[in-house]
Specification:
The complex is a heterodimer. The mean pLDDT of chain A is about 95. Chain A has one domain: Alpha-Beta Plaits (2-Layer Sandwich), CATH 3.30.70. The longest helix of chain A is centred in the N-terminal third of the chain and has 9 residues. Chain A is an alpha+beta fold. Chain B is mainly α. Chain B has two domains: about 60 residues; about 290 residues, Formate dehydrogenase/DMSO reductase domain (Formate dehydrogenase/DMSO reductase fold), CATH 1.20.1630.10. Chain B contains 14 helices and no strands. The N terminus of chain B is likely disordered. The chains are: A alpha+beta, B mainly alpha. Chains A and B meet through strand 2, strand 3, helix 2, helix 3 and strand 6 of A and helix 4 and helix 5 of B. The structure holds iron/sulfur cluster (2 copies).
Chain lengths: ~250, ~400
C-alpha cells in the first residue's frame, strides 16, 4: 500500500498559481475557493519589506484532526492510499472539520460567494449538484463517497490529492512524475502543471522514491509540527523552516 | 412534602387569572416564533444559507451555533437546578423544580431547532451520527448525550403532566447526570481544539458548567417573577424565603465564579504573546466585552451581594435579565473570538477576521426565543407546568 505524499520546493516556486488554476479546473472548484492555493504574505513596510509565498494544498495529515472530530466518519483516511477524503453521503455540514483543521484547507458549499458574480446562480444545476460548471471533470470520475465531483449543497469539501487519478496508478510505482510517460496521467493536476517543477509526488513508504530522497537530502520540513497532525506534504526551503509569518508578526 | 403552589392568592393552573396570563405569554411567543421563524425559513428556502455571514475564510460557526449552545446550556443548567430537589433532596428548591424542568425542555427545543436549521444536512445527521460510532469526536458524544437527555427529560415531564402531586422523581438522577455530561462535553467540543488558542484548555468544560448553572439560576429567577406578574408580594412565603435566601446567595456565588473565570481567561489571554491570543486584545477593546463583564456580570453580582438589593424582587429581575443577556454576549465572543485568527489564508485575510450576524441569523435567535417560550407557555397553560412550582 502506498502512502502518497507531496514535496514542494519553495526555492524554485515562483508563486504563479498555475497549480491553483489546474486544481480548480480539475476539481470543479468555485472561483476563489481553492483546494490548492498559493498564499502570499507581506511583512514590514516599504522600504523594509518582505514578500513571501507558500503553495498550500491539503496536508493529507498522517494524524488528521479533521478525521478525529468528524461525528459521522464522513471524513476518513483511505487505507489504500493514505489520502484523507470526505464522504458527501455522510457529511452533515456541521463544519467541525473546518474548525479543527490547522491548515484552513476545507470549504463549505453554502457560503456567500468568494468572488462575484455567484457562479452557482449563473450556472444553476438540478438534483444534488449545487451548480453546473461550464467546465467540469468527466461524469465517470465523480464519486460522492470520496468527495470527488461537483460539491453538493450542505457539505464540506477538500483537496483529494487527485484521488481519481492517483488511485489508478500502477501498483508498486515509487513516484508519479509528469515527465514519465508511464505515470503522467496519474499525476495530480497541480504537480503536472508546475512549470518550474517545484512539486513532486510519490510514495513516502517507498525508500526508493524520489520524494523521500528530496526530503532526506534537502531537509524537507512540515508545517506546524506542534499540532501533531504530521502532514504528508513536505516543504524544501534551503535548509530552514518555511517562512509562514504568524498574524502577530505580520502586524507592522 | 407539603403540596402547594408558589403563588399565594390562587392555586391551580386553570384559574381565570393565571390561564389568561399564560395565554397572553403564549400569544406573544407565537408572534415571535412566526416573525423569527418566518423570516429565517423564507430566507433559507429562497436563498439558502449563503445569506448568513459565516464564511470559508474562517468564521465557520456563527450566530446560529451561539444561539444553539446558549439555549442548550441554559437547558442543562435548569435540569441541574431541578436536580437540587429531585436528586439531592434540597426541599427548599421543590417549589421551582417543576418550572425549571419545563424551562429546560423549552430551551432544548429552541436550541435544537436552530441547530437543525444551521446544519447542512440535518436529516443525514439523524442516522449518520449514531450509526458511525466516531468515538474520538466530542461532537459524536454531544449528539448522543443530547439525544438521551432529551428523551429522559421528555419522559420525566410526560409523567408530570397535570399531576400536581408529583414528588421527587428517581429518573431525575439520569436527567441530571445527562445534563451534567452534555454541559461538560459541550465544553470539550471547544476546549479540545489545540489549533484554536482562544478555546483550547481543560478549564473550558468547567467554564461551561459554571455558565450553564448561573444562566439557569437567572432564568429560574426571571421566569418565577414573570409567573407572579413581576410582583414579589404574590409569592408564597416559602418561595419568597428561597428567593431572598438560598437562591439569591447561590446566584451571587455562581456569578462570582463566572466573573473569576471570565476575567481570568481575559487577563491570561492579554498577557500571552502566543499566536492566536491577540484576539483577546481585540475583544477587550470592544464595548461589548465591557458591557458583558461589568454590566452583565459585575453589576448583577453587586445587586445579589448587598442584602438590601438581594431580597428586592425588582433587583432580582434586573440581575437575572442582565445575566441572561451577558451570557449570550459571552457565548458570542467566545465562539466567534476563537475563529478570528485566519489559518493559512495569506493576503486573502491579512487581519483578524470580522463577523457580525446577518438579519437571517438574528431571526434564528428570535425563532429560538419564540419557540422556547411557546413550549413553556403552552406547558404552563395546558399541561400543568406551573401547577406546582
Ligand atoms: S490539512 Fe486539514 S483537512 Fe487536510 S488532512 Fe490535515 S487536518 Fe485534514
Ligand atoms: S462537516 Fe461533514 S466532514 Fe466535516 S466534521 Fe461535519 S460531518 Fe464531518
Amino acid at each position: 500500500m502506498p502512502k502518497w505524499g507531496m514535496v514542494i520546493d519553495l526555492e524554485t516556486c515562483t508563486g504563479c498559481q498555475a497549480c491553483t488554476t489546474a486544481c480548480a479546473m480539475e476539481n470543479n472548484r468555485l472561483p476563489g475557493e481553492n483546494w490548492q492555493d498559493v498564499l502570499f504574505y507581506s511583512e514590514g513596510e516599504y522600504p523594509n519589506l518582505n514578500l513571501s509565498w507558500l503553495p498550500r494544498p491539503c496536508m493529507q495529515c498522517e494524524n488528521p484532526s479533521c478525521v478525529s472530530v468528524c461525528p459521522t466518519k464522513a471524513t476518513y483516511k483511505d487505507e489504500g492510499t493514505g489520502i484523507v477524503l470526505v464522504d458527501w453521503n455522510k457529511c452533515i455540514g456541521c463544519k467541525y472539520c473546518m474548525v479543527a483543521c490547522p491548515y484552513g484547507v476545507r470549504f463549505y458549499m453554502d457560503e456567500a460567494p468568494a468572488v462575484e458574480p455567484d457562479v452557482r446562480a449563473e450556472f444553476p444545476a438540478s438534483g444534488r449538484r449545487s451548480w453546473n460548471p461550464p467546465f467540469k471533470m468527466p461524469d465517470e470520475y465523480e464519486d460522492a463517497s470520496k468527495g470527488i465531483g461537483i460539491q453538493p449543497k450542505g457539505v464540506v469539501s477538500k483537496c483529494t490529492f487527485c484521488y481519481h487519478k492517483v488511485s489508478q496508478a500502477p501498483a508498486g510505482v515509487a513516484d508519479l512524475d509528469e515527465d514519465n510517460p508511464e505515470t503522467k496521467e496519474f499525476t495530480p493536476a497541480c504537480v503536472r502543471v508546475c512549470a518550474p517543477k517545484s512539486r513532486f509526488f510519490g510514495d513516502l513508504d517507498n525508500p526508493d522514491s524520489h520524494v523521500n530522497a528530496l526530503i532526506a537530502e534537502k531537509g524537507g520540513v512540515r508545517l506546524k509540527e506542534e499540532t501533531g497532525n504530521k502532514p504528508q506534504v513536505y516543504y524544501l526551503s534551503g535548509g530552514g523552516s518555511p517562512a509562514v509569518p504568524g498574524n502577530r508578526s505580520r502586524r507592522s | 412534602m407539603a403540596m402547594m403552589t408558589d403563588t399565594a392568592p390562587t392555586s391551580g393552573h386553570d384559574t381565570q387569572g393565571r390561564g389568561s396570563h399564560f395565554l397572553l405569554h403564549l400569544i406573544v411567543a407565537l408572534v415571535l416564533l412566526a416573525l423569527g421563524g418566518g423570516y429565517a425559513l423564507t430566507e433559507i428556502l429562497e436563498f439558502g444559507k449563503v445569506q448568513f455571514n459565516t464564511n470559508n475564510a474562517g468564521i465557520h460557526w456563527g450566530m446560529a451555533i451561539v444561539t444553539y449552545d446558549y439555549f442548550l446550556l441554559t437547558s442543562t443548567g435548569l435540569a441541574m437546578v431541578a436536580s437540587l430537589w429531585h436528586v439531592f433532596g434540597m426541599a427548599e428548591f421543590a417549589p421551582i423544580a417543576r418550572r425549571a424542568l419545563w424551562l429546560a425542555m423549552a430551551g432544548l427545543v429552541g436550541g435544537v431547532a436552530v441547530l437543525f436549521l444551521e446544519l447542512g444536512a440535518p436529516l443525514t445527521a439523524l442516522w449518520a451520527t449514531p450509526l458511525n460510532m466516531q468515538f474520538a469526536s466530542p461532537l459524536f458524544w454531544k449528539v448522543l448525550l443530547v439525544g438521551a437527555y432529551a428523551i429522559s427529560l421528555a419522559i420525566v415531564l410526560f409523567g408530570m403532566i397535570n399531576k400536581p402531586d408529583a414528588g421527587r422523581n428517581p429518573l431525575m438522577i439520569l436527567v441530571g447526570g445527562l445534563a451534567l455530561a452534555v454541559t461538560l462535553v459541550a465544553g470539550l467540543v471547544y476546549g479540545m481544539m489545540a489549533m484554536r488558542p482562544v478555546w483550547f484548555g481543560g478549564e473550558i468544560p468547567v467554564v461551561f458548567l459554571i455558565e450553564s448553572f448561573v444562566g439557569a439560576l437567572a432564568f429560574t429567577m426571571f421566569f418565577s417573577h414573570l409567573k407572579n406578574g413581576f410582583n414579589h408580594s404574590n409569592m408564597r412565603p416559602d418561595t419568597r424565603a428561597l428567593f431572598e435566601g438560598t437562591l439569591a446567595r447561590m446566584f451571587a456565588i455562581a456569578i462570582a465564579l463566572h466573573f473569576i473565570l471570565h476575567a481570568g481567561r481575559a487577563i491570561t489571554g492579554l498577557w500571552s504573546n502566543a499566536e492566536g491570543m491577540q484576539v483577546w486584545g481585540y475583544m477587550t477593546a470592544q464595548p461589548l466585552f465591557h458591557i458583558a463583564l461589568w454590566g452583565c456580570v459585575a453589576l448583577p453580582f453587586v445587586l445579589m451581594v448587598l442584602p438590601g438589593t438581594r431580597s428586592n424582587g425588582m433587583m432580582q429581575i434586573v440581575a437575572a435579565a442582565l445575566v441572561m443577556i451577558g451570557l449570550l454576549i459571552s457565548r458570542y465572543e467566545f465562539i466567534i473570538g476563537g475563529q478570528m485568527v485566519p489559518m493559512f489564508k495569506g493576503t486573502w485575510a491579512p487581519e483578524l477576521l470580522s463577523y457580525s450576524p446577518s438579519t437571517g441569523e438574528w431571526a434564528l435567535l428570535v425563532l429560538a426565543v419564540g419557540l422556547a417560550n411557546t413550549v413553556y407557555a403552552f406547558g404552563a397553560w395546558k399541561l400543568g407546568a406551573e401547577d406546582r412550582a
